[in-house]
Automatic annotation (TrEMBL):
Pfam families: Abhydrolase_6. The keyword Glycoprotein does not apply. PANTHER family: AB HYDROLASE-1 DOMAIN-CONTAINING PROTEIN-RELATED, ESTERASE_LIPASE_THIOESTERASE DOMAIN-CONTAINING PROTEIN. Residues 3-227 form the AB hydrolase-1 domain. The keyword Lipid biosynthesis does not apply. The lineage of its organism: Bacteria, Bacillati, Actinomycetota, Actinomycetes, Micrococcales. One of its GO terms (molecular function) is hydrolase activity. Keywords: Hydrolase. This is Alpha/beta hydrolase.
Length: 234
């Protein structure tokens, strides 16, 4: 089974480094692409959009063995990208796994409030984040994260999601939530919070709690990997 891991904002494919070994030990073929604009701080991000990054992942899905379906895993802002891929290739996707993220609905931008400089949305100061987001991150990890962070293409944060294919609702999803409890997510769905509007429309969905901060690939990588494996086996 091919598994494609899409990192959240400011991160490249190597951010999954501590997650990959457990997935490979489970017999999975793992792909960790670094999307356009995120390879270096010196990249030109002016032409990078949410649609163009989604198209990159669609092309990767198309490139793997056509006889085998693919599992998509998206962390944070990567959740919008994998949902766009599900919309484009629902027949190729076995399951979509959203890590502290969700299937971003039509018309919703990932984070239009992020401050931008030209075509770049740099990693904000830590004090701008909620305390829950930073839970379990050590001072050394925070310093390392700051060192490896690459500005997010501003349009990836600000562009509205576009999904139109109702077949996306037939692809099973798993929400691995590290900063919200199952009860909080269920309450948000029941309250009609727009960010979660797609979830009740999806035929098969499940919620897995993994209490930690917003970056479980750093704070609980083995536990996150096992949760992904369990979701695939489900």
């Amino acid at each position: 089974m091919n598994v494609i891991l899409i990192a959240g904002f400011w991160l490249g494919g190597d951010s999954w480094g501590e997650v990959v070994p457990t997935l490979e030990q489970a017999g999975l073929t793992v792909h960790t692409p670094t999307l356009e604009g995120l390879a270096s701080v010196d990249d030109d991000r002016s032409g990078v959009t949410l649609a163009s990054q989604t198209a990159e992942v669609v092309a990767l899905v198309d490139a793997v063995d056509a006889e085998e379906k693919v599992v998509l895993v998206g962390h944070s802002g990567g959740g919008a990208i994998i949902h766009g891929v599900v919309d484009a290739r629902p027949d190729r996707i076995e399951r979509a796994v959203y890590v502290d993220s969700g299937p971003t609905p039509e018309g919703i931008a990932i984070n239009p409030q992020l401050e931008v400089t030209g075509a770049d949305a740099p990693l904000p100061p830590w004090e701008d984040f909620d305390e829950t987001d930073l839970r379990d991150l050590t001072d050394d990890q925070l310093a390392w994260f700051r060192e490896i962070a690459v500005p997010e293409p501003a349009r990836v944060a600000r562009d509205a999601q576009h999904v139109t294919n109702p077949a996306r609702y037939e692809v099973p999803i798993t929400l691995i939530s590290s900063t919200f409890s199952r009860a909080e997510i269920e309450e948000a769905i029941a309250a009609g919070i727009p960010y979660f509007a797609e979830v009740p429309l999806i035929a098969r969905s499940s919620i897995v709690e993994l209490p930690t901060g917003h970056w479980p690939q750093f704070t609980k990588p083995r536990e996150l990997a096992q949760a992904i494996v369990d979701a695939i086996r489900a």
